[in-house]
Queue: 3 jobs
Job 1
Amino acid sequence: PTADYATFISPKEAMSYLKEKGTPVVIKADGLAAGKGVIPAQSMDKAEEAIDTILTKKRFGTAGDRIIIEEFLTGEEASFIVFTDGNTIIPMPTSQDHKPIYDDDQGPNTGGMGAYSPAPVITEKLQQKIMDEIMFPTVQAMANEGRKYKGILYAGLMINNGEINVLEFNARFGDPETQPILIRMKTDLIPILEAIVDERLGQESIQWDERPAVCVVMASNGYPGSYQKGKGIEGLDKVQNMQNAQVFHAGTAFKNNHVVTSGGRVLGVTALGNDIKDAINLAYQATSQIQWEGAYYRKDIGKKALRR
Protein backbone atom coordinates (compact mmCIF):
# COMPACT_ATOMS: atom_id res chain seq x y z
CA PRO A 1 0.00 0.00 0.00
CA THR A 2 1.36 3.38 -1.06
CA ALA A 3 0.14 6.92 -1.62
CA ASP A 4 -1.37 7.92 -4.96
CA TYR A 5 1.33 9.55 -7.12
CA ALA A 6 2.52 10.71 -10.55
CA THR A 7 6.03 11.36 -11.93
CA PHE A 8 7.23 14.24 -14.10
CA ILE A 9 10.32 15.50 -15.91
CA SER A 10 8.59 18.59 -17.29
CA PRO A 11 7.93 21.52 -14.92
CA LYS A 12 4.98 22.59 -17.10
CA GLU A 13 3.30 19.17 -16.90
CA ALA A 14 3.99 18.99 -13.16
CA MET A 15 2.36 22.40 -12.61
CA SER A 16 -0.65 21.35 -14.67
CA TYR A 17 -1.11 18.17 -12.62
CA LEU A 18 -0.69 20.16 -9.42
CA LYS A 19 -3.48 22.57 -10.38
CA GLU A 20 -5.73 19.61 -11.13
CA LYS A 21 -5.00 17.79 -7.84
CA GLY A 22 -4.65 20.76 -5.48
CA THR A 23 -2.78 20.80 -2.18
CA PRO A 24 -1.56 19.54 0.24
CA VAL A 25 0.85 17.27 -1.63
CA VAL A 26 4.33 15.87 -1.13
CA ILE A 27 6.95 16.59 -3.80
CA LYS A 28 10.02 14.38 -4.02
CA ALA A 29 13.23 14.28 -6.01
CA ASP A 30 13.25 10.83 -7.62
CA GLY A 31 16.95 10.20 -6.91
CA LEU A 32 19.16 10.11 -3.84
CA ALA A 33 19.24 13.49 -2.09
CA ALA A 34 20.85 12.75 1.30
CA GLY A 35 17.44 12.45 2.95
CA LYS A 36 16.49 16.04 2.03
CA GLY A 37 14.68 15.54 -1.27
CA VAL A 38 11.17 15.36 0.19
CA ILE A 39 9.18 18.60 0.39
CA PRO A 40 5.71 18.58 2.00
CA ALA A 41 3.68 21.41 0.45
CA GLN A 42 0.59 22.64 2.27
CA SER A 43 -0.10 25.47 -0.19
CA MET A 44 -0.01 25.95 -3.95
CA ASP A 45 2.79 28.53 -3.61
CA LYS A 46 4.94 26.09 -1.64
CA ALA A 47 4.25 23.29 -4.15
CA GLU A 48 5.14 25.47 -7.14
CA GLU A 49 8.31 26.60 -5.37
CA ALA A 50 9.28 22.96 -4.73
CA ILE A 51 8.80 22.02 -8.39
CA ASP A 52 10.89 25.01 -9.47
CA THR A 53 13.59 24.23 -6.90
CA ILE A 54 13.98 20.60 -7.92
CA LEU A 55 13.27 20.52 -11.67
CA THR A 56 14.36 23.97 -12.84
CA LYS A 57 16.99 25.16 -10.36
CA LYS A 58 18.38 21.62 -9.95
CA ARG A 59 18.97 21.94 -6.21
CA PHE A 60 19.57 18.17 -5.98
CA GLY A 61 21.43 17.86 -9.29
CA THR A 62 20.62 14.79 -11.39
CA ALA A 63 18.68 13.32 -8.43
CA GLY A 64 16.03 15.90 -9.34
CA ASP A 65 15.82 15.16 -13.08
CA ARG A 66 12.46 13.62 -12.31
CA ILE A 67 10.03 14.42 -9.51
CA ILE A 68 7.22 12.56 -7.82
CA ILE A 69 4.07 14.38 -6.78
CA GLU A 70 2.44 12.29 -4.11
CA GLU A 71 -0.76 12.23 -2.09
CA PHE A 72 -0.26 13.89 1.31
CA LEU A 73 -0.65 11.17 3.93
CA THR A 74 -1.42 11.89 7.57
CA GLY A 75 -0.57 9.81 10.60
CA GLU A 76 2.59 8.86 12.45
CA GLU A 77 5.80 7.80 10.73
CA ALA A 78 7.84 4.80 11.82
CA SER A 79 10.79 2.84 10.49
CA PHE A 80 10.73 -0.93 10.03
CA ILE A 81 14.11 -2.48 9.25
CA VAL A 82 14.86 -6.16 8.65
CA PHE A 83 17.71 -8.54 7.94
CA THR A 84 17.05 -10.85 5.00
CA ASP A 85 19.02 -13.41 2.99
CA GLY A 86 16.31 -13.55 0.33
CA ASN A 87 14.56 -16.44 2.05
CA THR A 88 14.38 -15.69 5.77
CA ILE A 89 13.42 -12.30 7.21
CA ILE A 90 14.35 -11.27 10.76
CA PRO A 91 12.94 -7.92 11.90
CA MET A 92 14.98 -5.53 14.00
CA PRO A 93 13.29 -3.66 16.86
CA THR A 94 11.00 -0.90 15.61
CA SER A 95 12.09 2.73 15.65
CA GLN A 96 10.91 6.25 14.92
CA ASP A 97 12.89 9.04 13.27
CA HIS A 98 12.45 12.81 13.67
CA LYS A 99 12.92 14.39 10.24
CA PRO A 100 12.22 18.15 10.59
CA ILE A 101 15.02 20.36 11.86
CA TYR A 102 13.08 22.08 14.66
CA ASP A 103 11.13 20.94 17.73
CA ASP A 104 7.49 19.88 17.29
CA ASP A 105 8.33 18.71 13.75
CA GLN A 106 8.68 22.23 12.38
CA GLY A 107 10.94 23.47 9.60
CA PRO A 108 12.51 21.74 6.59
CA ASN A 109 13.26 18.03 6.49
CA THR A 110 16.71 16.73 7.30
CA GLY A 111 18.39 13.34 7.12
CA GLY A 112 17.05 12.83 10.67
CA MET A 113 17.54 14.74 13.93
CA GLY A 114 17.05 11.87 16.34
CA ALA A 115 15.36 8.54 16.85
CA TYR A 116 14.20 6.11 19.49
CA SER A 117 13.55 2.39 19.69
CA PRO A 118 11.15 0.71 20.10
CA ALA A 119 8.35 2.75 18.50
CA PRO A 120 5.13 2.25 20.50
CA VAL A 121 3.05 3.16 17.44
CA ILE A 122 3.92 -0.28 16.04
CA THR A 123 2.10 -2.79 18.21
CA GLU A 124 2.79 -6.53 18.11
CA LYS A 125 -0.31 -7.02 15.95
CA LEU A 126 0.72 -4.23 13.59
CA GLN A 127 4.24 -5.64 13.34
CA GLN A 128 2.84 -8.96 12.13
CA LYS A 129 0.69 -7.11 9.59
CA ILE A 130 3.76 -5.25 8.29
CA MET A 131 5.66 -8.53 7.93
CA ASP A 132 2.75 -10.31 6.21
CA GLU A 133 1.57 -7.51 3.92
CA ILE A 134 4.78 -5.60 3.15
CA MET A 135 8.11 -7.24 3.98
CA PHE A 136 7.45 -10.86 2.96
CA PRO A 137 5.69 -9.94 -0.32
CA THR A 138 8.43 -7.44 -1.21
CA VAL A 139 11.30 -9.89 -0.65
CA GLN A 140 9.38 -12.65 -2.45
CA ALA A 141 8.61 -10.37 -5.42
CA MET A 142 12.29 -9.52 -5.87
CA ALA A 143 13.17 -13.22 -5.76
CA ASN A 144 10.43 -14.04 -8.30
CA GLU A 145 11.96 -11.46 -10.66
CA GLY A 146 15.36 -13.14 -10.38
CA ARG A 147 16.71 -10.40 -8.12
CA LYS A 148 17.03 -12.18 -4.80
CA TYR A 149 17.70 -9.47 -2.24
CA LYS A 150 20.25 -10.11 0.49
CA GLY A 151 21.05 -7.48 3.10
CA ILE A 152 19.25 -4.81 5.07
CA LEU A 153 15.78 -3.72 3.93
CA TYR A 154 14.32 -0.54 5.41
CA ALA A 155 10.65 0.43 5.04
CA GLY A 156 9.62 3.96 5.97
CA LEU A 157 5.95 3.76 6.96
CA MET A 158 3.03 6.07 7.67
CA ILE A 159 0.58 4.62 10.20
CA ASN A 160 -2.92 5.97 10.72
CA ASN A 161 -5.59 4.15 12.75
CA GLY A 162 -3.99 0.78 12.12
CA GLU A 163 -3.65 1.37 8.37
CA ILE A 164 -0.16 1.29 6.86
CA ASN A 165 1.27 3.05 3.82
CA VAL A 166 4.83 2.65 2.56
CA LEU A 167 6.60 5.98 2.13
CA GLU A 168 9.94 4.60 0.96
CA PHE A 169 12.25 1.61 0.82
CA ASN A 170 15.99 1.82 1.43
CA ALA A 171 18.56 -0.90 0.84
CA ARG A 172 20.49 0.06 3.98
CA PHE A 173 20.24 0.77 7.69
CA GLY A 174 18.42 3.96 8.65
CA ASP A 175 20.29 6.95 10.04
CA PRO A 176 19.75 7.85 12.88
CA GLU A 177 17.48 4.84 13.60
CA THR A 178 20.41 2.41 13.51
CA GLN A 179 22.06 4.00 16.53
CA PRO A 180 19.25 3.23 19.04
CA ILE A 181 18.60 -0.13 17.36
CA LEU A 182 22.16 -1.50 17.33
CA ILE A 183 22.99 -0.25 20.83
CA ARG A 184 20.23 -2.70 21.87
CA MET A 185 21.74 -5.59 19.88
CA LYS A 186 23.38 -8.20 22.12
CA THR A 187 24.36 -10.58 19.32
CA ASP A 188 27.53 -9.92 17.33
CA LEU A 189 26.54 -8.24 14.04
CA ILE A 190 29.28 -9.75 11.84
CA PRO A 191 28.11 -13.40 12.01
CA ILE A 192 24.58 -12.22 11.10
CA LEU A 193 25.90 -10.43 8.01
CA GLU A 194 27.94 -13.50 7.06
CA ALA A 195 24.82 -15.66 7.43
CA ILE A 196 22.97 -13.29 5.08
CA VAL A 197 25.69 -13.66 2.43
CA ASP A 198 25.65 -17.48 2.78
CA GLU A 199 21.81 -17.65 2.83
CA ARG A 200 21.66 -19.34 6.23
CA LEU A 201 19.98 -16.56 8.20
CA GLY A 202 17.27 -19.01 9.26
CA GLN A 203 19.85 -20.79 11.44
CA GLU A 204 20.66 -17.62 13.40
CA SER A 205 19.08 -16.21 16.55
CA ILE A 206 19.42 -12.54 17.44
CA GLN A 207 19.20 -11.33 21.03
CA TRP A 208 18.08 -7.79 21.87
CA ASP A 209 18.26 -5.70 25.02
CA GLU A 210 14.72 -5.11 26.28
CA ARG A 211 15.59 -1.58 27.38
CA PRO A 212 14.60 1.31 25.07
CA ALA A 213 17.20 3.59 23.53
CA VAL A 214 17.23 7.19 22.30
CA CYS A 215 19.58 8.96 19.88
CA VAL A 216 19.90 12.76 19.78
CA VAL A 217 21.61 14.12 16.65
CA MET A 218 23.91 17.10 17.19
CA ALA A 219 24.17 19.19 14.03
CA SER A 220 26.09 22.16 12.69
CA ASN A 221 24.35 25.54 12.85
CA GLY A 222 22.71 26.22 9.47
CA TYR A 223 22.02 22.56 8.60
CA PRO A 224 20.18 21.40 6.44
CA GLY A 225 21.30 24.54 4.56
CA SER A 226 24.87 25.85 4.45
CA TYR A 227 27.07 25.45 7.51
CA GLN A 228 30.65 25.94 8.60
CA LYS A 229 33.13 23.11 9.13
CA GLY A 230 36.24 22.70 11.23
CA LYS A 231 34.77 23.65 14.62
CA GLY A 232 36.62 22.03 17.54
CA ILE A 233 34.47 19.58 19.54
CA GLU A 234 34.84 19.45 23.33
CA GLY A 235 33.47 17.05 25.93
CA LEU A 236 33.58 13.72 24.09
CA ASP A 237 35.77 12.27 26.85
CA LYS A 238 33.09 13.06 29.44
CA VAL A 239 30.52 10.92 27.62
CA GLN A 240 33.04 8.07 27.27
CA ASN A 241 32.94 7.68 31.04
CA MET A 242 29.12 7.56 31.21
CA GLN A 243 27.47 4.18 31.59
CA ASN A 244 24.84 3.21 28.97
CA ALA A 245 25.70 6.19 26.75
CA GLN A 246 27.63 6.17 23.48
CA VAL A 247 28.56 8.74 20.84
CA PHE A 248 28.38 7.72 17.17
CA HIS A 249 30.44 9.95 14.89
CA ALA A 250 29.06 11.15 11.54
CA GLY A 251 30.25 14.55 10.29
CA THR A 252 33.58 14.62 12.14
CA ALA A 253 37.24 14.71 11.17
CA PHE A 254 40.60 14.64 12.95
CA LYS A 255 42.66 17.81 12.54
CA ASN A 256 45.79 18.78 14.48
CA ASN A 257 45.15 16.02 17.03
CA HIS A 258 41.64 17.30 17.68
CA VAL A 259 38.16 16.14 16.63
CA VAL A 260 36.41 18.81 14.52
CA THR A 261 33.12 19.12 12.66
CA SER A 262 33.11 18.17 8.98
CA GLY A 263 29.41 17.76 8.12
CA GLY A 264 25.85 18.83 8.79
CA ARG A 265 24.87 16.02 11.13
CA VAL A 266 27.92 15.70 13.36
CA LEU A 267 27.21 13.26 16.23
CA GLY A 268 24.54 10.77 17.29
CA VAL A 269 24.46 10.80 21.09
CA THR A 270 22.73 7.59 22.13
CA ALA A 271 21.65 6.13 25.46
CA LEU A 272 19.88 3.10 26.92
CA GLY A 273 17.42 3.51 29.77
CA ASN A 274 15.24 1.40 32.05
CA ASP A 275 12.27 3.07 30.35
CA ILE A 276 11.88 5.61 27.55
CA LYS A 277 11.90 8.56 29.96
CA ASP A 278 15.15 7.34 31.51
CA ALA A 279 16.70 6.88 28.04
CA ILE A 280 15.66 10.39 26.98
CA ASN A 281 17.10 11.93 30.15
CA LEU A 282 20.42 10.12 29.81
CA ALA A 283 20.74 10.95 26.11
CA TYR A 284 20.23 14.65 26.83
CA GLN A 285 22.53 14.50 29.85
CA ALA A 286 25.24 13.13 27.56
CA THR A 287 24.45 15.66 24.84
CA SER A 288 24.86 18.53 27.31
CA GLN A 289 28.46 17.47 27.94
CA ILE A 290 29.47 18.10 24.30
CA GLN A 291 30.07 21.56 22.86
CA TRP A 292 31.34 23.33 19.77
CA GLU A 293 30.64 26.72 18.27
CA GLY A 294 27.24 26.57 16.57
CA ALA A 295 26.17 23.15 17.88
CA TYR A 296 22.40 22.56 17.50
CA TYR A 297 20.03 19.76 18.48
CA ARG A 298 16.31 19.24 18.95
CA LYS A 299 15.06 19.22 22.54
CA ASP A 300 12.04 16.93 22.03
CA ILE A 301 13.42 13.62 20.75
CA GLY A 302 11.34 10.73 22.11
CA LYS A 303 8.45 12.83 23.42
CA LYS A 304 5.96 11.07 21.12
CA ALA A 305 6.77 7.81 22.90
CA LEU A 306 6.07 9.43 26.28
CA ARG A 307 2.53 10.27 25.18
CA ARG A 308 1.66 6.60 24.61
Job 2
Amino acid sequence: MERNWLRQSVLPFLLLAYPLTFLFFQGGQYCQPLCFKPTAVGVATLFGVLLTVLLVAGGLRTRFRFDERGETHRIVRWLGSPPRLAGGILVGVFVGFVGFVALDALSLYEAVWKPIVLPLSFLLFFPVWVLYMASFPLAVLFSIAGIESSPLVTLVFRGVVVFIGFPLSAVVQTLIVSALVDQR
Protein backbone atom coordinates (compact mmCIF):
# COMPACT_ATOMS: atom_id res chain seq x y z
CA MET A 1 0.00 0.00 0.00
CA GLU A 2 1.26 3.46 -0.84
CA ARG A 3 2.65 5.61 2.00
CA ASN A 4 0.54 8.66 1.21
CA TRP A 5 -2.78 6.81 0.92
CA LEU A 6 -4.17 8.48 4.04
CA ARG A 7 -2.92 11.97 3.16
CA GLN A 8 -4.39 11.76 -0.32
CA SER A 9 -7.69 10.48 1.10
CA VAL A 10 -8.24 13.41 3.51
CA LEU A 11 -10.15 15.72 1.16
CA PRO A 12 -12.27 13.00 -0.51
CA PHE A 13 -13.12 11.71 2.98
CA LEU A 14 -14.18 15.17 4.19
CA LEU A 15 -16.17 15.85 1.00
CA LEU A 16 -18.28 12.78 1.72
CA ALA A 17 -18.18 12.66 5.51
CA TYR A 18 -19.36 16.18 6.38
CA PRO A 19 -22.75 16.03 4.62
CA LEU A 20 -23.39 12.41 5.60
CA THR A 21 -22.50 13.02 9.24
CA PHE A 22 -24.68 16.12 9.37
CA LEU A 23 -27.63 14.21 7.95
CA PHE A 24 -26.89 11.29 10.30
CA PHE A 25 -27.39 13.58 13.30
CA GLN A 26 -29.73 16.29 12.00
CA GLY A 27 -31.55 14.68 9.09
CA GLY A 28 -34.80 13.93 10.88
CA GLN A 29 -37.03 11.93 8.58
CA TYR A 30 -34.53 12.16 5.70
CA CYS A 31 -31.82 9.98 7.27
CA GLN A 32 -33.82 6.79 7.84
CA PRO A 33 -32.74 4.08 8.58
CA LEU A 34 -29.36 5.50 9.62
CA CYS A 35 -30.44 8.29 12.01
CA PHE A 36 -28.32 8.56 15.13
CA LYS A 37 -29.68 7.06 18.29
CA PRO A 38 -27.65 7.59 21.48
CA THR A 39 -27.03 3.89 22.03
CA ALA A 40 -24.13 1.52 21.49
CA VAL A 41 -25.72 0.50 18.19
CA GLY A 42 -25.97 4.17 17.15
CA VAL A 43 -22.30 4.78 17.91
CA ALA A 44 -21.31 1.57 16.10
CA THR A 45 -23.41 2.65 13.11
CA LEU A 46 -21.67 6.04 13.08
CA PHE A 47 -18.23 4.42 13.12
CA GLY A 48 -19.33 1.96 10.43
CA VAL A 49 -20.57 4.77 8.20
CA LEU A 50 -17.35 6.77 8.68
CA LEU A 51 -15.18 3.71 8.02
CA THR A 52 -17.14 3.03 4.84
CA VAL A 53 -16.70 6.67 3.80
CA LEU A 54 -12.94 6.36 4.44
CA LEU A 55 -12.77 3.25 2.25
CA VAL A 56 -14.77 4.98 -0.50
CA ALA A 57 -12.45 8.01 -0.22
CA GLY A 58 -9.47 5.69 -0.56
CA GLY A 59 -11.08 4.19 -3.64
CA LEU A 60 -11.66 7.63 -5.11
CA ARG A 61 -8.04 8.47 -4.40
CA THR A 62 -6.86 5.47 -6.39
CA ARG A 63 -9.22 6.37 -9.21
CA PHE A 64 -7.86 9.92 -9.45
CA ARG A 65 -4.15 9.44 -8.81
CA PHE A 66 -2.15 12.44 -7.72
CA ASP A 67 1.58 12.74 -8.25
CA GLU A 68 2.80 15.06 -5.52
CA ARG A 69 6.37 15.02 -6.86
CA GLY A 70 5.33 16.40 -10.24
CA GLU A 71 5.28 19.97 -11.41
CA THR A 72 1.82 20.76 -10.12
CA HIS A 73 0.51 24.04 -8.84
CA ARG A 74 0.70 24.54 -5.09
CA ILE A 75 -3.10 24.68 -4.72
CA VAL A 76 -3.49 21.37 -6.53
CA ARG A 77 -0.85 19.86 -4.23
CA TRP A 78 -2.64 21.18 -1.13
CA LEU A 79 -5.96 19.72 -2.26
CA GLY A 80 -4.56 16.46 -3.61
CA SER A 81 -2.21 15.69 -0.76
CA PRO A 82 -2.28 18.17 2.12
CA PRO A 83 0.78 18.27 4.38
CA ARG A 84 0.70 15.68 7.16
CA LEU A 85 0.11 18.30 9.89
CA ALA A 86 -2.67 19.91 7.83
CA GLY A 87 -4.35 16.53 7.37
CA GLY A 88 -4.21 15.96 11.12
CA ILE A 89 -5.71 19.38 11.81
CA LEU A 90 -8.48 18.82 9.25
CA VAL A 91 -9.36 15.44 10.73
CA GLY A 92 -9.30 17.02 14.20
CA VAL A 93 -11.74 19.71 13.05
CA PHE A 94 -13.97 16.96 11.64
CA VAL A 95 -13.86 15.02 14.94
CA GLY A 96 -14.83 18.23 16.76
CA PHE A 97 -17.66 18.71 14.26
CA VAL A 98 -18.93 15.19 14.96
CA GLY A 99 -18.73 15.79 18.71
CA PHE A 100 -20.60 19.07 18.63
CA VAL A 101 -23.25 17.87 16.19
CA ALA A 102 -23.76 14.88 18.51
CA LEU A 103 -24.08 17.19 21.52
CA ASP A 104 -26.57 19.29 19.57
CA ALA A 105 -28.61 16.23 18.57
CA LEU A 106 -28.70 15.11 22.21
CA SER A 107 -29.37 18.68 23.47
CA LEU A 108 -26.64 18.37 26.10
CA TYR A 109 -25.09 21.39 27.84
CA GLU A 110 -26.20 23.78 25.08
CA ALA A 111 -25.83 26.85 27.29
CA VAL A 112 -22.17 26.02 27.83
CA TRP A 113 -20.87 25.21 24.35
CA LYS A 114 -23.26 26.83 21.85
CA PRO A 115 -22.16 30.45 22.46
CA ILE A 116 -18.59 29.40 21.61
CA VAL A 117 -19.17 26.85 18.86
CA LEU A 118 -21.84 28.71 16.87
CA PRO A 119 -19.62 31.73 16.03
CA LEU A 120 -16.75 29.34 15.29
CA SER A 121 -19.01 27.44 12.88
CA PHE A 122 -19.53 30.68 10.92
CA LEU A 123 -15.80 30.70 10.23
CA LEU A 124 -15.32 26.98 9.64
CA PHE A 125 -18.43 26.43 7.53
CA PHE A 126 -18.92 29.81 5.87
CA PRO A 127 -20.27 28.40 2.56
CA VAL A 128 -22.92 26.44 4.48
CA TRP A 129 -24.06 29.55 6.30
CA VAL A 130 -24.08 31.65 3.11
CA LEU A 131 -26.29 29.11 1.34
CA TYR A 132 -28.50 28.81 4.42
CA MET A 133 -28.86 32.59 4.70
CA ALA A 134 -29.77 32.76 1.01
CA SER A 135 -32.93 30.85 1.86
CA PHE A 136 -34.43 33.85 3.68
CA PRO A 137 -34.48 36.26 0.71
CA LEU A 138 -35.79 33.43 -1.46
CA ALA A 139 -38.58 32.77 1.04
CA VAL A 140 -39.49 36.47 1.00
CA LEU A 141 -39.53 36.51 -2.82
CA PHE A 142 -41.73 33.41 -2.89
CA SER A 143 -44.06 35.03 -0.37
CA ILE A 144 -44.28 38.29 -2.33
CA ALA A 145 -44.97 36.37 -5.54
CA GLY A 146 -47.68 34.39 -3.77
CA ILE A 147 -45.89 31.09 -4.25
CA GLU A 148 -46.28 28.74 -1.36
CA SER A 149 -43.12 26.81 -0.62
CA SER A 150 -43.79 23.10 -0.79
CA PRO A 151 -41.95 20.45 1.24
CA LEU A 152 -40.20 19.43 -1.99
CA VAL A 153 -38.71 22.92 -2.42
CA THR A 154 -37.56 22.84 1.21
CA LEU A 155 -36.00 19.41 0.70
CA VAL A 156 -34.21 20.49 -2.49
CA PHE A 157 -32.85 23.64 -0.89
CA ARG A 158 -31.74 21.74 2.20
CA GLY A 159 -29.97 19.27 -0.08
CA VAL A 160 -28.18 22.12 -1.84
CA VAL A 161 -27.08 23.60 1.49
CA VAL A 162 -25.84 20.27 2.86
CA PHE A 163 -24.39 18.62 -0.25
CA ILE A 164 -22.80 21.74 -1.74
CA GLY A 165 -22.10 23.86 1.36
CA PHE A 166 -20.24 21.25 3.40
CA PRO A 167 -17.99 20.07 0.55
CA LEU A 168 -17.18 23.70 -0.31
CA SER A 169 -16.35 24.25 3.36
CA ALA A 170 -14.05 21.22 3.32
CA VAL A 171 -12.22 22.57 0.25
CA VAL A 172 -11.83 26.03 1.82
CA GLN A 173 -10.62 24.51 5.11
CA THR A 174 -8.12 22.32 3.27
CA LEU A 175 -6.73 25.25 1.30
CA ILE A 176 -6.42 27.55 4.31
CA VAL A 177 -4.93 24.98 6.68
CA SER A 178 -2.53 23.65 4.03
CA ALA A 179 -1.40 27.19 3.17
CA LEU A 180 -0.82 28.03 6.84
CA VAL A 181 1.08 24.80 7.47
CA ASP A 182 3.13 25.27 4.29
CA GLN A 183 4.12 28.80 5.37
CA ARG A 184 5.33 27.49 8.71
Job 3
Amino acid sequence: MKEEEIDKLITESLDKEEAEFYNNLEEKSLFKMWGDLYTGKLGWVAILMSIVHTIVVVLCFYCGYKLFVVEGITEIIRYGVVLFIALAFGSMIKLWHWMQMDKNSILREVKRLEFQIAMLTERITNE
Protein backbone atom coordinates (compact mmCIF):
# COMPACT_ATOMS: atom_id res chain seq x y z
CA MET A 1 0.00 0.00 0.00
CA LYS A 2 1.12 3.49 -0.73
CA GLU A 3 1.29 6.16 1.94
CA GLU A 4 -1.65 8.04 0.38
CA GLU A 5 -3.83 4.92 0.51
CA ILE A 6 -2.91 4.31 4.15
CA ASP A 7 -3.70 7.94 5.03
CA LYS A 8 -7.04 7.64 3.22
CA LEU A 9 -7.97 4.47 5.14
CA ILE A 10 -7.01 6.05 8.45
CA THR A 11 -8.96 9.23 7.69
CA GLU A 12 -12.05 7.24 6.68
CA SER A 13 -11.98 5.29 9.95
CA LEU A 14 -11.80 8.44 12.10
CA ASP A 15 -14.63 10.72 13.09
CA LYS A 16 -14.62 14.35 11.89
CA GLU A 17 -12.68 15.87 14.83
CA GLU A 18 -10.06 13.12 14.85
CA ALA A 19 -9.61 13.35 11.07
CA GLU A 20 -9.05 17.11 11.31
CA PHE A 21 -6.39 16.58 13.99
CA TYR A 22 -4.74 13.84 11.91
CA ASN A 23 -4.64 16.06 8.82
CA ASN A 24 -2.92 18.83 10.80
CA LEU A 25 -0.03 16.43 11.40
CA GLU A 26 0.81 16.03 7.70
CA GLU A 27 4.14 17.06 6.16
CA LYS A 28 4.71 20.81 5.96
CA SER A 29 6.48 22.75 3.25
CA LEU A 30 10.07 23.88 3.70
CA PHE A 31 9.07 27.52 4.24
CA LYS A 32 6.40 26.54 6.78
CA MET A 33 8.95 24.45 8.71
CA TRP A 34 11.40 27.36 8.57
CA GLY A 35 8.72 29.72 9.93
CA ASP A 36 7.87 27.28 12.70
CA LEU A 37 11.43 27.63 14.01
CA TYR A 38 10.53 31.08 15.32
CA THR A 39 7.63 29.83 17.44
CA GLY A 40 7.62 27.68 20.54
CA LYS A 41 10.07 27.36 23.38
CA LEU A 42 13.22 27.92 21.31
CA GLY A 43 11.79 30.67 19.12
CA TRP A 44 13.86 33.34 20.82
CA VAL A 45 17.04 31.32 20.19
CA ALA A 46 16.18 31.02 16.49
CA ILE A 47 15.61 34.78 16.29
CA LEU A 48 18.92 35.41 18.05
CA MET A 49 20.71 32.98 15.71
CA SER A 50 19.20 34.72 12.68
CA ILE A 51 20.44 38.09 13.92
CA VAL A 52 23.90 36.67 14.58
CA HIS A 53 23.88 35.01 11.15
CA THR A 54 23.03 38.32 9.49
CA ILE A 55 25.98 39.94 11.26
CA VAL A 56 28.23 37.07 10.16
CA VAL A 57 27.11 37.44 6.53
CA VAL A 58 27.87 41.17 6.61
CA LEU A 59 31.27 40.36 8.12
CA CYS A 60 31.91 37.83 5.34
CA PHE A 61 31.14 40.37 2.63
CA TYR A 62 33.30 42.98 4.32
CA CYS A 63 36.26 40.61 4.76
CA GLY A 64 35.86 39.29 1.23
CA TYR A 65 35.95 42.82 -0.16
CA LYS A 66 38.92 43.81 1.99
CA LEU A 67 40.76 40.62 1.03
CA PHE A 68 41.03 41.85 -2.55
CA VAL A 69 41.55 45.55 -1.77
CA VAL A 70 44.36 45.55 0.82
CA GLU A 71 47.96 45.37 -0.31
CA GLY A 72 50.01 44.05 2.63
CA ILE A 73 50.44 40.29 2.93
CA THR A 74 49.73 40.32 6.68
CA GLU A 75 46.46 42.17 6.09
CA ILE A 76 45.48 39.74 3.34
CA ILE A 77 46.15 36.81 5.67
CA ARG A 78 44.27 38.50 8.52
CA TYR A 79 41.17 39.15 6.39
CA GLY A 80 41.40 35.68 4.86
CA VAL A 81 41.48 33.99 8.25
CA VAL A 82 38.58 36.08 9.55
CA LEU A 83 36.63 35.31 6.36
CA PHE A 84 37.27 31.58 6.78
CA ILE A 85 36.22 31.61 10.45
CA ALA A 86 33.10 33.66 9.67
CA LEU A 87 32.11 31.28 6.86
CA ALA A 88 32.57 28.29 9.17
CA PHE A 89 30.54 29.98 11.92
CA GLY A 90 27.77 30.87 9.46
CA SER A 91 27.69 27.27 8.25
CA MET A 92 27.32 26.05 11.83
CA ILE A 93 24.40 28.39 12.39
CA LYS A 94 22.72 27.11 9.23
CA LEU A 95 23.27 23.53 10.37
CA TRP A 96 21.62 24.37 13.70
CA HIS A 97 18.57 25.70 11.83
CA TRP A 98 18.35 22.56 9.67
CA MET A 99 18.71 20.29 12.70
CA GLN A 100 15.91 22.15 14.48
CA MET A 101 13.65 21.74 11.44
CA ASP A 102 14.52 18.03 11.33
CA LYS A 103 13.80 17.70 15.05
CA ASN A 104 10.39 19.34 14.62
CA SER A 105 9.62 17.01 11.71
CA ILE A 106 10.55 13.95 13.77
CA LEU A 107 8.41 15.17 16.69
CA ARG A 108 5.45 15.61 14.32
CA GLU A 109 5.88 12.01 13.10
CA VAL A 110 6.09 10.73 16.69
CA LYS A 111 2.84 12.56 17.48
CA ARG A 112 1.27 10.99 14.40
CA LEU A 113 2.34 7.52 15.59
CA GLU A 114 1.09 8.20 19.12
CA PHE A 115 -2.25 9.24 17.66
CA GLN A 116 -2.49 6.08 15.57
CA ILE A 117 -1.58 3.90 18.57
CA ALA A 118 -4.19 5.65 20.71
CA MET A 119 -6.83 5.11 18.02
CA LEU A 120 -5.94 1.42 17.69
CA THR A 121 -5.95 0.97 21.48
CA GLU A 122 -9.36 2.60 21.73
CA ARG A 123 -10.70 0.43 18.93
CA ILE A 124 -9.34 -2.75 20.56
CA THR A 125 -10.79 -1.90 23.99
CA ASN A 126 -14.20 -1.12 22.46
CA GLU A 127 -14.38 -4.48 20.69
